[in-house]
Amino acid sequence: MTTGEDVQSAAALNRRDFVQRAVALGAAGLVGSSARAAAGERQRRIIIDTDPGVDDAVAILLALRSPELSVEAITPVAGNVPLSLTLPNALRMLELAGRTDIPVAAGAEGPLERELITASYAHGNNGLAGVEFPEPTTRPVAEAASQLITRLIRGSPGEISIVAIGPLTNLALAFRADPALPSMVKDITIMGGSLSGGNITPAAEFNAYVDPEAAQIVFHSGAPITMIGLDVTRQISVTEVVLQRLSSADNPLGRAAGRILRAQIEQLRRTGIDDGTLHAHDALAMASCIEPGLVSRHPMHIEVETRGEWTAGETLGYRRPLRRSAPRQQAPSDSSLAPPAANAVVALEVDVGRFLELLTERLAA
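^ that's the sequence the OP posted. Answer follows.
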C-alpha cells in the first residue's frame, strides 16, 4: 500500500512513472523507507551475461523482482550447459516473468581457446536440474551477444553495468573487438574466481576455469570490477526455510525458483557434490548490485592462470607488497617490492542473514 509519505517522496516523478514504480515496489514486497528510496532513486541499468544454470536462473528472477535494477539485455553464453540450453533457459525465465520486452542475444558457443567444459553433473541435463518449463515462444535478437553488449554500452557510455555470472567469453570478445569499450562500462560485477580454492579443481572456480583466457582479458580491461568469488558465496547455504518460503510463494517466479533450487539440491545429493549444500553463487552477485553493503570490498590486483597444467583458471589476488625473485646476493630494487596496481575489488565477507532475507523477500512476496 502506498502511503502519503511515499507520494511526497515521488513528487519529482510524473503520475505514470510513479504508478509504474509503485506496482513494481508492491511486487517486490518493499515497504516504508526502502520503498521511498527505490521510488526516488534512479534504477541501475544492467546487462546480465549468464549461462543458466540453476543459480543463474534464480539470479535473473531476482533481478526482475527488484525495482532497483533495470535489465537492459540478457546475453547467454555456454558454460553450465551448452548454449543450446542456456539460450532457451534465459528466454524461459523472461517469459515466466512476462518480460519478453528484454532483448536476449546468443553468445559464444565455447571458450576463446579451449574445449567447453560443462557442469551438467550439478545443473542437470537441461540446466535447470531437470525441472521442465514450456518451450519459449520468443526469439533471440539477430545480433550476437558481443555486438549487443557493444551497441548498448556505446549508446549509453558510463551508464550501464554488466553483471557477469557465467564464463567471461562474451565480454572478452566484445572488449577484444572494441578496446575502448571497457572505459565506457559503468562497472562489472563478476561471479567468478576464488582466493580460497576452487570448486571444479582444487585451484579454480568453475567460471574462471571454463575460459581463463577470457577472464584474464576482462580483469586486465581497465573496467571497474567487483569480484564475487567463492570466498563469499561458499559462506551461504540455502536453507530448508528458504526453500519452503519460495515453494509456497504467491507468485510464479518464486515458486519456479523454489522448484529448481530444491531439484538441484537433490541432484547434488545424488552425485555427492558438496554433501548436497547449495550456495546460490550467482544470486549473491546479483544481490550485491541491489544492496552493495551485503559484501565487503577489498582492492586487489587479480591475475588468472592460463598456462598451468594443474592450475588453469586459478585467480591470484595481490593484497600487499610481495618480494619478487631477485638474483642471489643482489638486493631487490624498490620497484621489485611494489605490488601490482589494483584492478578489482574483491568481496571477502558477506552478511549471510541479510542476503537470505533479501532473496526470500523479493522472490516469495
